Amino acid sequence: MRQALDQFILAIPVLFIKQFPYAWIAAVVLWSWPPTFSIVFLAIIVIGLFALRWQSKAWISNLQREHAFKDGKFHVDQPPFSFMDSARKILILVAGAALLAWLLNGQFGLGFWQIFLIIVGFTLLYRDTQFFGAPTTYIITDQGIGIHFTPGHIDYRLFLTFKEISRIEKSTYQKDRNWDAFVRTRDTKDGLLMTPKNPNGFTKRLEKLFIAPNDTEKFLEQLPRGYGNTLL
Question: Mean pLDDT over residues 179-190, rounded?
Answer without folding.
Answer: 90
